[in-house]
Design a protein that fits this description.
Elements (H helix, E strand, L loop, with lengths): L10 E3 L9 E11 L6 E11 L3 E3 L1 H9 L8 H16 L3 E11 L2 E10 L13
Antiparallel strand pairs: 1-4, 2-3, 3-5, 5-6
Length: 129
């Protein structure tokens, strides 16, 4: 078992490429550092994605998010960096990353970043009676 953070995101083959389905991942203990003060910022990351050929392997995702613990980053920058890295690794049909940061100075911050593959259209929702 690794006890070190890592920026290597591992993937595995999507076991069901013929259909669109959504994977939800919640990371409630994300930390990074405020680039101005060096104090820790705590938040929750929520990832929702429709995989294409690959899915992200969860242990590598845990080690990846751990790697930000000692990095100074603005909320907007770190959210978009994580989305960019996840998209590069998994090449999903769609991915949304929501980063909700805890209160700091009386202010909560939520950053939402999305990626949509050029050739992907979401299925129409089914309206049941």
């Amino acid at each position: 078992m690794s006890s070190r953070p890592s920026r290597d995101l591992e993937v595995f083959s999507n076991p069901q490429t013929a259909v669109d389905y959504t994977i939800h991942i919640r990371i409630p203990e994300f930390t990074c550092l405020c680039p101005k003060t060096g104090q820790p910022d705590f938040g929750e990351l929520r990832i929702a994605y429709v995989p294409d050929e690959f899915c992200v392997e969860l242990k590598s995702l845990k080690l990846y998010t751990w790697s930000f613990r000692d990095q100074g980053a603005f909320h907007e920058a770190v959210t978009n960096e994580i989305l960019t890295d996840l998209v590069a690794a998994t090449r999903p049909r769609f991915m949304r990353l929501t980063a909700e940061f805890n209160v700091r100075g009386g202010i909560f911050t939520t950053v939402v970043a999305e990626h949509r593959a050029d050739d992907w259209q979401p299925p129409q929702p089914v309206q049941l009676p």
